[in-house]
Design brief:
alpha/beta; Rossmann fold; 4-stranded antiparallel β-sheet; 40% helix; 25% strand; globular
């Protein structure tokens, strides 16, 4: 967990750099209808949610299942249109952009899912998967896209002999690396990781966190980590935002959230964390 003078100095530096993302009063409603009914009821997936992400920082978004974390991520990635509210990205109002401007800005915001296999074409090779976003964005020649894709595979630790393999020939951790390479080939500013570590074992999580830290430093990336595991995100997040019933009820620097939580729901989450002793007993069992 980050803390002490380092946490204070990093907070000052983030304030100096300013926010890359600002979400204000965001709402997202869905109408659900029964199989044999014309009427439906409204589900409020997001309700007046607000948060900010500092440029070059890592924000963790935590909360129970159904709290609205993934819906917020999809709105940020422009996969869902909010019902109300504002999203500012790099000083631009995303919800006011035209289709041509949205096409350009989409490359700057990339989303990585919990199970990457669901987002990777099983018929394509690793090289084709990483090169495809460049073709969609009409960047470079075919040879240039191939070279960029090879560099992308190498940057996430996938060897040259992996380029001809298809997704199902990789392990879960390797598929996650492949998804990261695909996302980073467009040189985005914001990388959203939706429970991207939850399917990995402890060793895999530690290895992936090290890789993500290296990539963040190398490419000046901003991260939004979505997770239900408060203890895990405490290891790497600069700030933590807590969601409950579609709202962001609290956002604080990591050390302060653990030492001085302002909301009762956050205090309940902290109380529910397993103790260090119980974790050690579970691992030795």
């Amino acid at each position: 967990m980050k803390g002490g003078c380092k946490d204070v100095s990093e907070s000052i530096e983030r304030e100096r750099r300013g926010p890359l993302v600002s979400v204000q009063h965001l709402s997202k409603n869905y109408v659900q209808r029964g199989q044999f009914s014309r009427t439906g009821h409204t589900v409020h997936a997001l309700e007046d949610a607000s948060l900010t992400i500092s440029r070059g920082a890592t924000l963790a978004l935590v909360g129970d299942s159904g709290s609205g974390k993934s819906t917020l991520a999809r709105c940020l990635a422009l996969l869902e249109k909010p019902s109300a509210g504002e999203i500012t990205f790099d000083s631009r109002d995303l919800l006011a952009l035209g289709s041509r401007e949205l096409f350009a800005v989409r490359s700057q915001i990339q989303l990585i899912f919990q199970e990457p296999a669901s987002a990777l074409n099983p018929r394509m090779t690793a090289l084709e998967i990483v090169a495809e976003p460049l073709a969609i964005q009409r960047r470079g020649t075919k040879a240039e896209r191939r070279d960029r894709a090879l560099e992308g595979l190498a940057s996430v630790g996938l060897r040259m002999d992996c380029r001809g393999k298809r997704p199902m020939e990789f392990s879960g951790g390797q598929r996650q690396r492949l998804a990261i390479a695909r996302a980073l080939v467009l040189e985005p500013q914001l990388l959203i990781l939706d429970e991207a570590l939850s399917s990995l074992d402890l060793a895999g999580q530690e290895t992936m966190l090290q890789l993500l830290a290296e990539l963040q430093a190398r490419h000046s990336l901003t991260y939004l980590h979505i997770s239900h595991d408060l203890r895990l995100v405490s290891q790497f997040a600069d700030e933590i935002a807590v969601m409950y019933n579609g709202r962001v009820v609290e956002q604080q620097p990591t050390a302060k959230l653990f030492s001085e939580p302002s909301e009762e729901y956050t205090r309940d989450l902290l109380i529910a964390l397993p103790s260090l002793e119980s974790i050690c007993m579970d691992r030795s069992a």
